[in-house]
Structures are given as C-alpha cells and as structure tokens.
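User: Hey, quick favor. My workstation is busy. Could you predict this chain's structure for me?
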Amino acid sequence: MSPRRNRPKGATDSGGAGPGDDHERYGGFESTQTWRGEEWSVRHVAGASTAGKTYRCPGCDQVIPSGVPHVVTWPQYAGVDDRRHWHKACWSARDRRATRVQRGRGAPRH
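Assistant: No problem, here it is.
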C-alpha cells in the first residue's frame, strides 16, 4: 500500500504558490458581483491565514473571530482601505438586512 498524499492535487513541487496564485494563498476564490449598481470584488477567505486578527462584520455588527472562514469585499476600483470583512451569510443576505445604527445608551430612540 502506498502512503497517503499530503499535498492537494495540482500542487507544485516548488512548495509555494506563484505570484499569480493569490486565490490559493488566501484560501479562497475571487469573483466579481454587482451590488447597489457597483461592481464589487469578493474573495472567500479560509480564516486560517488570519491568526490573531478579528474583524467586525458590517452586516450584523458582530465580531468575526480569528480563524473563522468569511468573505472580504471591496468596490472594484477602490483601494485597500475600502475592504470589508463579512460573514458569508451576512454577505449573502446583504439586500435583506437593514443598516444597523449604533447608539449610545442615553441616545433617544426615534
């Protein structure tokens, strides 16, 4: 019996991803989607590469803990500062969610 393969099929023998293989480096694939009349780049992130980092999802305003798979989105022709990290379910339901307004405890509720 031959030993089990520990490398995924198609992995190169050089041991690393090439410069054009960002989708493999970050653990997901990238696509383009239209939302609110604008083109958005959407990248699925495995979460393993985000060790020690937490993000706040704009869809539910909850923390995305380190190591949790999620989605990174940004407008197609925007810079790095416009990237947002979403839960996968929140990104899928973005049109069905209302914006969450954060208020202080003493703020009036209208």
